């Protein structure tokens, strides 16, 4: 494969090379890449939403098993998910990279191909960013801007007692995909033969959930079509338990969810069994599912049941009752935020 050194382009030449000939998806993008700042016009009735993520090689991703195109796609989509979780629409994206000498222009073209695929899939414009040299591998900083009418924005603090707790899709698949990738990486490291083949057969779903997640634009559109506005909502990035505790604290309510109602895919359950893990714990604390957890008034039960891909897993209670999982045998276990913690000390 051809290898072009980044030094041949220089900083601004590289940005121009990676972003040239891009078409805009949104009229609100007045000026994108190529000036000191992007210019966006949402009009007098729109509110702007902003979210940002910092991804570090060796902390948030491992290039041993993560293709750069998949990394670009995922880096964009996880930011789109944050905007959808506010009941808003992502419109623009900025991308900044810290790049070590290990990477060449073709590597970055692969990364940007993933970014562009995500932007084209979700109708988002890449409008700018920055690049810098790095001595610690690859660093990615992404900021996403979205828009919404003020009355449609959903926060975490609106849940009320008797509200239904709903979840989209299924849980734990991304985490089990990560465990599988890490296991095969360890096996590969100990192999002497060069023709090592990882044991990925019949595990495609959990691998895709880890390497190429999707934001639930479809659910937001379905809720709008059904004229349903959740009372609170988050995306599940750090684990369901963690997100429900956030909603509980900010809404000043309690939570009851039921183990038997947790949506878990067959591959996730099978992989958890292979790793001797409790599948409910995986579903509650795995993280990186990027599903939506939201609450709606009890009176909307029939309308929610009509939306494909949404499952009711519990209800909101009074704050004094706390946040609990009701097990299959009727026991109550307090939920704990055991998902991803960037600053947790290693033991």
Helices and strands in order:
Layout: H1 10-19, E1 29-31, E2 39-40, E3 46-56, H2 68-84, E4 89-99, H3 105-122, E5 125-133, E6 139-149, E7 164-168, H4 173-190, H5 204-211, H6 217-225, E8 232-235, H7 240-251, E9 254-258, H8 266-274, H9 279-285, E10 292-296, H10 301-305, E11 310-317, E12 323-326, E13 332-334
Parallel strand pairs: 4-5, 9-12
Antiparallel strand pairs: 1-2, 3-6, 4-6, 7-10, 7-11, 8-10, 9-11, 12-13
Question: Can you give a write-up of this model?
Answer:
This protein has 347 residues and is an alpha+beta fold. It is 33% helix and 23% strand. The chain contains ten helices and 13 strands. The strands form three sheets. A seven-stranded mixed β-sheet has the order 8-10-7-11-9-12-13, with helices on both faces. Strand 4, helix 3 and strand 5 (125-133) form a beta-alpha-beta unit. Helix 2 (68-84) packs parallel to helix 3 (105-122). The chain is globular, with a radius of gyration of 21 Å.
Care to give the gist of this entry?
By secondary structure, the protein is an alpha+beta fold.
């Amino acid at each position: 494969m051809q290898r072009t050194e980044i030094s041949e382009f220089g900083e601004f030449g590289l940005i121009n090379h990676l972003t040239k000939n891009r078409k805009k998806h949104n009229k609100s993008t007045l000026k994108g890449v190529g000036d000191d700042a992007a210019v966006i016009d949402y009009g007098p009735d729109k509110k702007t939403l902003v979210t940002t993520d910092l991804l570090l090689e060796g902390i948030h991703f491992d290039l041993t098993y993560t293709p750069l195109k998949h990394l670009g796609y995922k880096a964009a989509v996880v930011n789109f998910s944050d905007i959808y979780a506010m009941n808003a629409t992502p419109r623009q994206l900025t991308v900044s990279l810290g790049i070590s000498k290990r990477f060449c222009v073709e590597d970055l073209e692969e990364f940007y191909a993933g970014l562009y695929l995500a932007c084209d899939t979700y109708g988002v414009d890449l409008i700018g960013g920055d690049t810098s040299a790095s001595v610690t591998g690859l660093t990615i900083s992404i900021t996403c801007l979205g828009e919404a009418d003020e009355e449609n924005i959903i926060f975490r603090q609106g849940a009320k007692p008797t509200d239904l707790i709903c979840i989209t899709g299924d849980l734990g698949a991304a985490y089990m995909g990560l465990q599988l990738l890490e296991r095969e990486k360890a096996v590969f490291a100990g192999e002497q033969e060069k023709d090592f083949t990882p044991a990925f057969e019949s595990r495609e779903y959990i691998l895709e959930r880890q390497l190429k997640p999707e934001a639930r634009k479809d659910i937001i559109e379905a809720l709008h079509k059904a004229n349903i506005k959740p009372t609170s909502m988050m995306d599940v990035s750090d684990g369901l338990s963690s997100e429900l505790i956030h909603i509980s604290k900010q809404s000043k309510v309690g939570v009851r969810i039921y183990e038997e109602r947790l949506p878990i895919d067959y591959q996730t359950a099978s992989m958890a069994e292979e790793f001797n893990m409790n599948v409910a714990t995986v579903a509650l604390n795995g993280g990186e599912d990027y599903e939506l957890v939201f609450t709606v008034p009890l009176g909307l039960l029939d309308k929610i049941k009509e939306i494909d891909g949404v499952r009711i897993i519990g209800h909101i209670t009074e704050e004094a009752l706390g946040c609990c999982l009701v097990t299959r045998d009727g026991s109550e276990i307090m939920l704990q935020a055991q998902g991803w913690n960037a600053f947790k000390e290693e033991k």
